[in-house]
Structures are given as structure tokens and as C-alpha cells.
Amino acid sequence: MPENKTTDLAYWINEREAIRVRKEAGDPAPWTHDPVMATVRYCNVHREHDKVTRYIRSVDTYSRPGVPVYAVVLARMLNRIPTLEAVSPLVHLGDLAGVKNVLKEMRKDGPIWGNAYTISTCGKTMDKVDYVINHVVQTVQQLRVAQWISCRATYEWLKSVDGLGSFLAAQVVADLKNIKGHPLNSAPDWWTWSAPGPGSLRGLHAYFGTKITPKLYEEAIVTCYDEVRPLLNNYVGELHMQDFQNTLCEFSKFIRVRDGDGHARNTYVAR
Questions:
Q1: Model-level pTM?
Q2: Which 8-state DSSP code applies to residue 261?
Q3: What percentage of the chain's residues is helix, strand, coil (to nearest 5)?
Q4: From CA 118, how far away is CA 157, in angstroms rounded?
Q5: Distance (Å, rounded) from C-alpha 2 to C-alpha 38?
Q6: Are 105 and 71 in contact (CB under 8 A)?
Q7: Helix, strand or coil for residue 223?
Q8: Is 34 helix (H, G, I), strand (E, B) or coil?
Q9: Percent of the chain's residues with pLDDT above 70
Q10: ∠ CA 64-69-70 to the nearest 5 degrees?
């Protein structure tokens, strides 16, 4: 692997975490002298530091040890704090009909979905709220509870649900495994498992300079991690493989903008 890409990825991880630390310490904006880092919106190095994840982790409805999986699935599909606040009492009671009513009323006044990723009806001609509740969330609610053998096994179980593709299933696993007291919090593959997604495959392509297919993903990401890890600063802390995978998604965006090969969809103004 050319050394510059190893140092580039390590640089992005180190600098992104340093930006978070400076910002949360109350230092003045923009928290970095790098123009690409200062003007493009990036996810955090550790997913648990992201704003919506912090909210989800603070609410028993979505993060108690015995949380129903459908509640976590719904939280991740909505992925917007005001919406989650509005439906939380009904989700806690398992009143999905009430959740549907609230969502349909809320959308009259503005957005109800987060903008981090797109939720669709997967080709079905129907109301998106009805699709999410009736075809995804209620299906998860009615499934037998997963045997919490591993993150990988739970991921495969979730992917069996129509409307939960690889990306969303992996997001739900990440939520479950970070709930203290949940069985997945002590899963044997907590540190090592991740699932390929379009963003991480683009990041591996940027890193290795060649296309990485899903079949090549596991070997490639382990190699990449082993090369980059020694260059990470102590303040970054340990990265489990799902967090490292997320950094690859952001790394591909950083390289594309830095090298003038494209522009960022989400710009950022430091305040």
C-alpha cells in the first residue's frame, strides 16, 4: 500500500477526532486549519458521538437492555430527534397505530425523516409511513427474537426483513451492541465484525487504488486497519471495525474533495 494513503487515512481520523474534542472543549471555531475538514460535514470517528446516536442512547425507549428490536429499527429509520421525541411514549407502549397517526400529522408541518440516508418504499406504491410501520417495523415486531449469538448472526437475521437492507441492518446491530446490558454488548465479534456498504467500499477503493468488491471486503478492511492503526493518536481511542468502516466512508469523501475530483453534498459552516 502506498504510504501516502495510509498517512492520509490516519490523518483524517486523527484530525476529525481532534475537531470534535476542540469543539466540545469550547475552543473557538473552526477547530482546524484544514480547509476541507473545516467546510465539509463529516460523521464522527466514533459513531456513539453522533448527535442522533447520543439522543437514542439517552432514552430508555430505544436503549434499555431489553429494548424490543422493532423500537431500534424504527428509531434508525426515522433518525431525527424531534420525530423520535414525539413518538417515544407510543413506541414504549408498543402502540404502532398511534405512531403512524403522529407521524402523518407531523409531516404536515415539516420533515419527519432524518437526512443521513434515504428511506424508501422499496418499489411499492404506497405511503412511506404505512410502509415503514406495516411492512418493516411490524414484521420485526412479529419475528421470533434473535438468538444473540453474534453481531454477524443478528445482522443476517435482520436482513431477512423486507425493507432492511445491508446498511440499515448493520446500523441496528451497531445500536444494539452499544446498549449496556444487552446481550450483543458482549458479543464475541463486537470488535471485529462489520458489513460492507457502498461508502466503505468506495473508501477502500480510494485507499488501495483498485476496486474492492464485497467478496474482497473482509480481507481488505482488516489489511487497511492493520496498516493505519499504528499511526492513530492515543486520543482517538480503540476503534471497533464498524467505526473504522464508517471512517472509510468519510475518507472517500475527504479525498474526492481534497483532490478536486468532486464536491461534497453536505457542506459545513463552523459556529
A1: 0.92
A2: S
A3: 60, 0, 40
A4: 22
A5: 26
A6: no
A7: helix
A8: coil
A9: 95
A10: 115
Do 104 and 72 contact (CB within 8 A), yes or no? no
Q: Which of 195, 196, 192 is nearest to 240 (CA)?
A: 192
How is 107-128 classified by DSSP, letter by letter?
TTTS--S-SSS----TT--S-H
Q: Which three cell numbers stand for residue 84?
A: 423520535
Query: Which has the closest alpha carbon to 214: 230, 189, 195, 240?
Result: 195
DSSP 27: P
As given in the structure block, the three cell numbers for residue 161 are: 426483513
Q: What is the pLDDT of residues 180-236, one digit of tens each?
A: 999 999 999 999 999 999 999 999 999 999 999 999 999 999 999 999 999 999 999
Which pairs count as long-range contacts for 175-181, CB under 8 Å and 24+ apart, including other chains? 175/53, 175/56, 175/62, 175/63, 175/72, 175/75, 175/76, 176/67, 176/69, 176/72, 177/151, 178/48, 178/57, 179/57, 179/63, 179/64, 179/65, 179/67, 180/65, 181/64, 181/65
Amino acid residing at 45: V
What b/e sequence results for 157-195 when a residue is b if at least 16 CB atoms lie within 10 Å of its CB, and e otherwise?
bbeebebbeeebbbbbbbbbbbbeebbbeebebbebbbb
From residue 144, how far is each of 31, 133, 141, 213, 264 by CA, in Å? 48, 18, 8, 33, 42
Residue pair 196/224 in contact (Cβ under 8 Å)? The answer is: no
